[in-house]
Amino acid sequence: MPDLITLEDVKIFLNVASGSTTHDALLKLLIEQYSAVIEGYCRRKFSQDNYEEVYDGNGKTSLLLDNYPIISIESLTIDDYPYTASDYLIYKNEGEIKLVEDAFAIGNQNVEIEYTAGFEEVPADIKLCCTEMTASKFKEIDGNRIGIASISFGDQNTTFRESEFTDKIKNILNRYRKPVL
Fold this sequence. Notes:
By secondary structure, the protein is an alpha+beta fold. It is built from 4 helices and 9 strands. The protein folds into 2 domains: about 5-45 and about 120-175, no CATH class; about 50-115, no CATH class. The chain has helices spanning about 5-15, 25-40, 125-140, 165-175, and strands at about 50-55, 60-65, 70-80, 80-85, 90, 95-100, 105-115, 150-155, 155-160. Strands 1-7-3-4 form a 4-stranded antiparallel sheet, with no helix packed on it. The protein has a 3-stranded antiparallel sheet with strand order 2-6-5, with no helix packed on it. The chain is elongated and about 70 Å long.
């Protein structure tokens, strides 16, 4: 799985000199982990890739694919019968294929599809979420704040957020989250 952001993205965000490699291993690990967390939360991948998937036929005229936006469909086979591009419509941004004059025959693992899907470049707001989450966790680790919810010094109190998914991040990610049917 490709990462959603680069090491350089996080270093710029944290105002770390690009030549400094002191924290590179930790930052790379956090980038990888938060890329996976975001894709897991959204139930989809964002980077463009080729997919070969098998689905259960649902008896309906449409089928939602696991990854989108759909760039192209190389092949669609239902019960070993090949369909051509004139047999279906593609709703690219929704990740949906709709058969023109047929339905996806009910069956187990009887729909095979090869296709290309994903964003050529990860959307900027997804990159921002990943960058903010990575930087926040790095600051938590680097500042020895792991597990600390607040700190008081006399009459001053500092509270740290307890969730990595702030409301702002959830609102952004929810726009890309694949619905559960």
